UniProtKB/TrEMBL annotation:
Name this polypeptide is given: ATP synthase subunit delta
GO CC terms of this entry: membrane
Pfam families (UniProt xref): OSCP (PF00213)
GO molecular function, one term: proton-transporting ATP synthase activity, rotational mechanism
TM segment ranges: none
Keywords (A to Z) from UniProt: ATP synthesis, Coiled coil, Hydrogen ion transport, Ion transport, Membrane, Transport
Domain of life: Bacteria
Ranges in coiled-coil conformation: 105-132
Species of the source: candidate division CPR2 bacterium GW2011_GWC1_41_48
């Protein structure tokens, strides 16, 4: 059973690339868990799988996370209802929540909006290098002109054009002062 739970948790982790995705999915899972708990199952169809399937499918509209909604829809279409069993969904939600606490959060400030496919590639590459799931908290800041700033805890890598121009300006000023052509 735990093997199947872990497979579903890993499948959902694969669709997460941003902090917003992670937060939406954690919230959605917690809310959705009440729909598939024991009381709800007894009240809304009991052992009648088709009736429960229709109920779950209709409740997917309340899930705010598009990737999670699509994942659940694919399970329902494949008639893979195992995860929606009351005991299993609770285990899935708990395992997901536990694993999400081990996710590495990296702040990325970019000059331009990052396309979804680029965000996915970047998170996959960083996850491989760090050997942990990486999620990016992306912020767009046009004042950095170009490039990006990457922050993790107290570690900062500044690849912004604004920073490079500032460094260039400082070096140029030092060289002009050193040559004696301008007063400090």
């Amino acid at each position: 059973m735990q093997k199947t739970v872990d497979k579903h948790v890993n499948d959902v982790m694969e669709i997460i690339h941003s902090k917003d995705d992670l937060n939406e999915i954690v919230f959605s899972l917690h809310s959705f868990k009440e729909l598939v708990d024991y009381k709800s199952v007894i009240k809304n169809g009991g052992d009648n799988l088709e009736k429960r399937k229709l109920l779950i499918a209709s409740e997917l509209k309340n899930i705010s996370s598009k990737p999670l909604k699509e994942y659940f829809q694919s399970l329902i279409r494949a008639n893979d209802m195992w995860i929606f069993e009351p005991g299993h969904f609770g285990d899935f939600e708990k395992s997901f929540k536990d694993l999400s606490e081990d996710v590495v959060l990296i702040n990325l400030v970019a000059a331009l909006e990052i396309k979804e496919k680029d965000l996915k590639k970047l998170t996959e590459d960083l996850s491989k290098k760090m050997e942990k799931k990486v999620v990016l908290d992306v912020t767009v800041d046009k004042t950095i002109i170009g490039g990006a700033i990457i922050k993790k805890d107290n570690f900062v890598l500044d690849f912004s054009l604004k920073n490079k121009l500032g460094q260039f300006g400082s070096e140029w000023k030092k060289s002009v002062v050193k040559s004696g052509n301008v007063d400090e």
